[in-house]
Amino acid sequence: MTFELWLTFFIASLLISISPGPGAINTLSSGLRYGVRNSLPAILGLQLGYGAQIVVAGIGLGALLAASTTAFNVVKWFGIGYLVWLGYKKWTQPPLSAEGITPPWESGRARFWQAAFVNLTNPKATVFLLALFPQFLNTQADQGVQITVMGATLILVDIGVMLGYAALASQMSRWMRNERHQVIQNRVFGSLFVGAAALLAGFRNQ
After folding, report:
1. Do residues 150 and 133 make contact, with C-beta atoms less than 8 angstroms apart?
2. Is residue 164 within 8 Å of 37, Cβ to Cβ?
């Protein structure tokens, strides 16, 4: 993977992590109640679930590529279509309620496993990774190394973003309760996902 391609993937990873979802809301709730330091178990738990999703997606794509390059390309274009659909869903998504999130358990261990379960049982994460990875994979290079680099990038970026969510929890909670702000944010991210799909559709892996 070239540095330029990795940088593009890094930006995509940042966009994915910043976009509010179950993990971000879980971290926001934990940050509000426990502060940044005591939110670390929940943040690390999210990464365990995320890592499991990355492994599942990576193994699935490797097996698919070994079976058929044509099938791999079909998945790639399905992924582009999925990004467009995700952008539409994000554009029309109703405002989230931070107050509706179930409070985390008191112990760090319980918060760790609760957060891991949040990401581990989110089927959208696997589908999204299956849509994202083919856009950046070089089919002529070692797939394992590329998946490892992309997986590590996703996790490290997500840790940084989740720490940011926890640190700004009080400010973010007030912002999240404003439905108008949420609508604007959802439409911005929806447009970005569609734009990313358009850019990736024109990308040709060498």
Report:
1. yes
2. no
